[in-house]
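Entry 12.
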Amino acid sequence: MPPRRSRPPRSGALTDLPPLKIIKKIVLLQLSFYACATSLILFTCLVTGTAFSPSLIFSWDSLRGDTTLGWILGLVWMLNSFLCVIFLLIIVSRSKLVPDFTLTTHSIHVVIVALYTRSVPTNLLWWSLQFASSALMTFIGIWACQYRELKPISFGGLGGSSSTANTADSNSQPGDPSSQDPEVGDANKESESGHQFLSISRGRGRGRNRDASDDYEMVTMKDVEEGVV
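Predicted 3D structure (tokens):
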């Protein structure tokens, strides 16, 4: 019986990154998420003259639709999700892994809020904010990572070859005596072919027989000199 073909590995975080690296990235992204949110909420409290407390971050009671502070906190959390795209771009850097890390970050946030308040969130506005924040962070994060992945790469060798070709074309102008005199042109072609053969013989001598490479090089250089003269 022919050997059974194994299925290709499924694309995902576990096949692209080792478990320890995944955990490290999750911790870094979660800390960046809370650090950015703390900075924004602290700045909002200083501007509005409100006392800062950890409940503004880890409690779902503070996000209410009947107070001005509640709506401001909602806008701050949406701005936090928008800024966390930068951390996704730096820490994750893969467009297909962005949804996994985004949903993991918000799921951990839900667990931390439930443990902090010792109750499951029952505020509809708070849950709507979590879904909106996850969607915003996912779509903009995928777009940013894809834009970085599809960015064209410039190679220095292509630019150098094109510049060399342009230089050769510019040197062969109608007023050049080598282009008008056929004998001078033939001599230049012979010298160029000799130099090319010299470079080829050097490359072969290095790879196959280093002892005989010097002899071939001396003979080739003599032939080139006679051809030019």
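Annotation: The chain has ten helices and no strands. Residues 13-148 form one domain.
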